[in-house]
Design brief:
mainly alpha; rod-shaped
Protein backbone atom coordinates (compact mmCIF):
# COMPACT_ATOMS: atom_id res chain seq x y z
CA UNK A 1 0.00 0.00 0.00
CA UNK A 2 2.75 2.63 0.85
CA UNK A 3 4.53 1.77 -2.34
CA UNK A 4 1.56 2.65 -4.41
CA UNK A 5 1.15 6.02 -2.72
CA UNK A 6 4.77 6.95 -3.55
CA UNK A 7 4.33 5.91 -7.13
CA UNK A 8 1.27 8.13 -7.52
CA UNK A 9 3.04 11.18 -6.07
CA UNK A 10 5.98 10.58 -8.32
CA UNK A 11 3.77 10.26 -11.27
CA UNK A 12 2.10 13.59 -10.52
CA UNK A 13 5.47 15.32 -10.09
CA UNK A 14 6.77 13.88 -13.33
CA UNK A 15 3.80 15.08 -15.18
CA UNK A 16 4.37 18.66 -14.09
CA UNK A 17 7.95 18.52 -15.31
CA UNK A 18 6.87 17.10 -18.59
CA UNK A 19 4.35 19.95 -19.05
CA UNK A 20 7.05 22.56 -18.45
CA UNK A 21 9.34 20.81 -20.95
CA UNK A 22 6.61 20.65 -23.58
CA UNK A 23 5.88 24.37 -23.13
CA UNK A 24 9.55 25.19 -23.62
CA UNK A 25 9.77 23.10 -26.75
CA UNK A 26 6.67 24.81 -28.18
CA UNK A 27 8.22 28.24 -27.55
CA UNK A 28 11.45 27.25 -29.26
CA UNK A 29 9.48 25.88 -32.19
CA UNK A 30 7.60 29.11 -32.64
CA UNK A 31 10.83 31.12 -32.64
CA UNK A 32 12.35 28.81 -35.17
CA UNK A 33 9.41 29.16 -37.47
CA UNK A 34 9.54 32.95 -37.21
CA UNK A 35 13.25 32.89 -38.07
CA UNK A 36 12.83 30.60 -41.04
CA UNK A 37 9.97 32.78 -42.46
CA UNK A 38 12.17 35.90 -42.51
CA UNK A 39 13.75 36.95 -45.90
CA UNK A 40 17.17 35.47 -46.74
CA UNK A 41 18.90 38.85 -47.13
CA UNK A 42 17.77 40.14 -43.78
CA UNK A 43 20.75 40.94 -41.68
CA UNK A 44 19.01 41.22 -38.39
CA UNK A 45 16.03 39.25 -37.11
CA UNK A 46 13.70 41.23 -34.90
CA UNK A 47 11.34 39.38 -32.64
CA UNK A 48 8.68 40.43 -30.18
CA UNK A 49 6.77 43.74 -30.40
CA UNK A 50 7.76 44.84 -33.94
CA UNK A 51 6.30 41.68 -35.43
CA UNK A 52 3.07 42.15 -33.55
CA UNK A 53 2.91 45.77 -34.73
CA UNK A 54 3.28 44.68 -38.35
CA UNK A 55 0.54 42.13 -37.94
CA UNK A 56 -1.78 44.75 -36.42
CA UNK A 57 -1.01 47.15 -39.25
CA UNK A 58 -1.74 44.50 -41.83
CA UNK A 59 -4.98 43.60 -40.08
CA UNK A 60 -5.99 47.28 -39.98
CA UNK A 61 -5.35 47.58 -43.70
CA UNK A 62 -7.52 44.55 -44.37
CA UNK A 63 -10.27 45.92 -42.13
CA UNK A 64 -10.11 49.27 -43.90
CA UNK A 65 -10.37 47.53 -47.26
CA UNK A 66 -13.32 45.46 -46.04
CA UNK A 67 -14.98 48.55 -44.58
CA UNK A 68 -14.48 50.42 -47.84
CA UNK A 69 -15.95 47.56 -49.83
CA UNK A 70 -18.99 47.34 -47.54
CA UNK A 71 -19.45 51.12 -47.67
CA UNK A 72 -19.26 51.06 -51.47
CA UNK A 73 -21.77 48.24 -51.62
CA UNK A 74 -24.16 50.08 -49.27
CA UNK A 75 -23.82 53.26 -51.32
CA UNK A 76 -24.50 51.36 -54.54
CA UNK A 77 -27.51 49.70 -52.91
CA UNK A 78 -28.81 53.08 -51.73
CA UNK A 79 -28.41 54.51 -55.23
CA UNK A 80 -30.30 51.54 -56.65
CA UNK A 81 -33.10 51.98 -54.10
CA UNK A 82 -33.28 55.70 -54.86
CA UNK A 83 -33.47 54.90 -58.58
CA UNK A 84 -36.26 52.37 -58.01
CA UNK A 85 -38.14 54.86 -55.80
CA UNK A 86 -37.81 57.56 -58.47
CA UNK A 87 -39.02 55.15 -61.14
CA UNK A 88 -42.01 54.10 -59.01
CA UNK A 89 -42.85 57.73 -58.30
CA UNK A 90 -42.71 58.52 -62.03
CA UNK A 91 -44.88 55.49 -62.82
CA UNK A 92 -47.42 56.50 -60.15
CA UNK A 93 -47.49 60.04 -61.54
CA UNK A 94 -48.02 58.72 -65.08
CA UNK A 95 -50.84 56.44 -63.90
CA UNK A 96 -52.48 59.31 -62.01
CA UNK A 97 -52.19 61.54 -65.09
CA UNK A 98 -53.72 58.85 -67.30
CA UNK A 99 -56.60 58.43 -64.84
CA UNK A 100 -57.14 62.20 -64.70
CA UNK A 101 -57.03 62.45 -68.50
CA UNK A 102 -59.53 59.57 -68.81
CA UNK A 103 -61.86 61.20 -66.27
CA UNK A 104 -61.61 64.54 -68.05
CA UNK A 105 -62.30 62.88 -71.41
CA UNK A 106 -65.28 61.03 -69.96
CA UNK A 107 -66.63 64.26 -68.45
CA UNK A 108 -66.15 66.05 -71.77
CA UNK A 109 -68.03 63.30 -73.62
CA UNK A 110 -70.87 63.40 -71.07
CA UNK A 111 -71.05 67.18 -71.36
CA UNK A 112 -71.13 66.94 -75.15
CA UNK A 113 -73.92 64.35 -75.03
CA UNK A 114 -75.93 66.49 -72.61
CA UNK A 115 -75.43 69.57 -74.76
CA UNK A 116 -76.45 67.66 -77.88
CA UNK A 117 -79.59 66.37 -76.14
CA UNK A 118 -80.49 69.86 -74.96
CA UNK A 119 -79.88 71.25 -78.43
CA UNK A 120 -82.07 68.49 -79.88
CA UNK A 121 -84.88 69.41 -77.49
CA UNK A 122 -84.57 73.10 -78.38
CA UNK A 123 -84.46 72.34 -82.11
CA UNK A 124 -87.43 69.98 -81.90
CA UNK A 125 -89.41 72.58 -79.95
CA UNK A 126 -88.51 75.23 -82.52
CA UNK A 127 -89.54 72.91 -85.35
CA UNK A 128 -92.86 72.15 -83.69
CA UNK A 129 -93.42 75.82 -83.09
CA UNK A 130 -92.66 76.58 -86.73
CA UNK A 131 -94.94 73.82 -87.97
CA UNK A 132 -97.77 74.69 -85.62
CA UNK A 133 -100.04 77.31 -87.12
CA UNK A 134 -99.99 80.48 -85.18
CA UNK A 135 -103.36 80.83 -83.56
CA UNK A 136 -104.40 84.41 -83.46
CA UNK A 137 -106.85 85.26 -80.73
CA UNK A 138 -110.20 85.97 -82.25
CA UNK A 139 -112.16 88.71 -80.63
CA UNK A 140 -115.76 87.90 -79.91
CA UNK A 141 -117.96 89.22 -82.68
CA UNK A 142 -120.17 92.04 -81.60
CA UNK A 143 -123.45 93.17 -83.06
CA UNK A 144 -125.26 96.45 -82.87
CA UNK A 145 -128.30 96.52 -80.62
CA UNK A 146 -130.69 97.41 -83.43
CA UNK A 147 -132.62 95.70 -86.22
CA UNK A 148 -129.52 95.38 -88.43
CA UNK A 149 -127.48 93.85 -85.60
CA UNK A 150 -130.31 91.46 -84.62
CA UNK A 151 -130.69 90.21 -88.19
CA UNK A 152 -126.94 89.73 -88.65
CA UNK A 153 -126.55 87.86 -85.38
CA UNK A 154 -129.54 85.64 -86.27
CA UNK A 155 -127.99 84.88 -89.68
CA UNK A 156 -124.73 83.71 -88.03
CA UNK A 157 -126.66 81.39 -85.72
CA UNK A 158 -128.80 80.12 -88.61
CA UNK A 159 -125.65 79.42 -90.61
CA UNK A 160 -124.14 77.44 -87.74
CA UNK A 161 -127.39 75.46 -87.39
CA UNK A 162 -127.82 75.08 -91.15
CA UNK A 163 -131.09 77.01 -91.24
CA UNK A 164 -131.63 78.63 -94.65
CA UNK A 165 -132.46 82.32 -95.01
CA UNK A 166 -131.04 85.64 -96.16
CA UNK A 167 -130.77 89.13 -94.81
CA UNK A 168 -133.30 90.40 -97.34
CA UNK A 169 -135.81 87.67 -96.62
CA UNK A 170 -135.64 88.30 -92.86
CA UNK A 171 -135.75 92.06 -93.14
CA UNK A 172 -138.71 92.06 -95.56
CA UNK A 173 -140.87 89.78 -93.38
CA UNK A 174 -139.94 91.63 -90.15
CA UNK A 175 -141.01 94.96 -91.58
CA UNK A 176 -144.35 93.52 -92.76
CA UNK A 177 -145.12 91.72 -89.47
CA UNK A 178 -143.94 94.20 -86.80
CA UNK A 179 -142.34 97.23 -88.49
CA UNK A 180 -139.18 96.30 -86.58
CA UNK A 181 -140.72 96.50 -83.09
CA UNK A 182 -139.49 93.55 -80.97
CA UNK A 183 -142.37 94.04 -78.50
CA UNK A 184 -145.15 94.07 -81.10
CA UNK A 185 -148.19 91.91 -80.25
CA UNK A 186 -151.33 91.05 -82.26
CA UNK A 187 -154.44 91.21 -80.13
CA UNK A 188 -157.13 91.04 -82.86
CA UNK A 189 -156.52 87.97 -85.15
CA UNK A 190 -157.73 84.43 -84.63
CA UNK A 191 -154.68 83.54 -82.57
CA UNK A 192 -155.49 86.37 -80.16
CA UNK A 193 -159.09 85.15 -80.01
CA UNK A 194 -157.76 81.69 -79.14
CA UNK A 195 -155.57 83.20 -76.37
CA UNK A 196 -152.25 82.71 -78.14
CA UNK A 197 -151.54 86.07 -79.77
CA UNK A 198 -148.57 86.47 -82.14
CA UNK A 199 -145.58 88.29 -80.60
CA UNK A 200 -142.23 89.81 -81.49
CA UNK A 201 -140.45 90.86 -84.67
CA UNK A 202 -141.82 88.00 -86.80
CA UNK A 203 -145.10 87.61 -84.89
CA UNK A 204 -144.62 84.06 -83.65
CA UNK A 205 -147.24 82.43 -81.41
CA UNK A 206 -145.88 80.89 -78.17
CA UNK A 207 -146.45 77.21 -79.14
CA UNK A 208 -144.56 77.69 -82.43
CA UNK A 209 -141.76 79.55 -80.66
CA UNK A 210 -141.31 76.74 -78.14
CA UNK A 211 -141.50 74.01 -80.81
CA UNK A 212 -138.91 75.65 -83.13
CA UNK A 213 -136.69 77.34 -80.53
CA UNK A 214 -133.02 77.27 -81.58
CA UNK A 215 -130.57 76.10 -78.91
CA UNK A 216 -128.17 78.80 -77.78
CA UNK A 217 -130.77 81.57 -77.94
CA UNK A 218 -132.99 82.99 -75.25
CA UNK A 219 -136.30 81.39 -74.28
CA UNK A 220 -137.85 84.84 -74.09
CA UNK A 221 -140.22 85.20 -77.06
CA UNK A 222 -139.63 88.99 -77.11
CA UNK A 223 -135.85 88.54 -77.46
CA UNK A 224 -135.13 89.81 -81.03
CA UNK A 225 -132.53 87.16 -81.99
CA UNK A 226 -134.46 84.27 -80.39
CA UNK A 227 -137.69 85.40 -82.13
CA UNK A 228 -136.03 85.72 -85.56
CA UNK A 229 -134.19 82.36 -85.47
CA UNK A 230 -137.23 80.44 -84.19
CA UNK A 231 -139.46 81.95 -86.93
CA UNK A 232 -136.80 81.24 -89.60
CA UNK A 233 -136.52 77.64 -88.35
CA UNK A 234 -140.34 77.21 -88.58
CA UNK A 235 -140.42 78.74 -92.06
CA UNK A 236 -137.60 76.45 -93.22
CA UNK A 237 -139.55 73.38 -92.11
CA UNK A 238 -142.86 74.57 -93.63
CA UNK A 239 -141.84 76.65 -96.66
CA UNK A 240 -138.23 75.70 -97.26
CA UNK A 241 -136.88 79.13 -96.25
CA UNK A 242 -138.00 82.43 -94.75
CA UNK A 243 -137.18 83.85 -98.18
CA UNK A 244 -140.21 82.01 -99.56
CA UNK A 245 -142.60 83.74 -97.15
CA UNK A 246 -144.33 86.82 -98.60
CA UNK A 247 -147.42 87.09 -96.41
CA UNK A 248 -148.85 85.90 -93.13
CA UNK A 249 -147.57 82.49 -92.38
Amino acid sequence: MPKNILNRAYSRQLTKHHKIAVAGVAALGTAALAFSAAPGNAGTVTTGAPAATAQVAATGTVLQNVKGTVTDQLAAKNIKLDTLAAQKKAADAATAKQAADAAAKKAAVAAAVTKAAQQHVVTAAADRSAQRPQMQPVAAKTYANNLDGWIRKSLDIMKAKRIPGSYNGLHRNIMRESSGNPYAINNWDINAVNGIPSKGLLQVIPPTFQAYHVPGTSWNIYDPVANITAAANYAAHRYGSIDNVNSAY
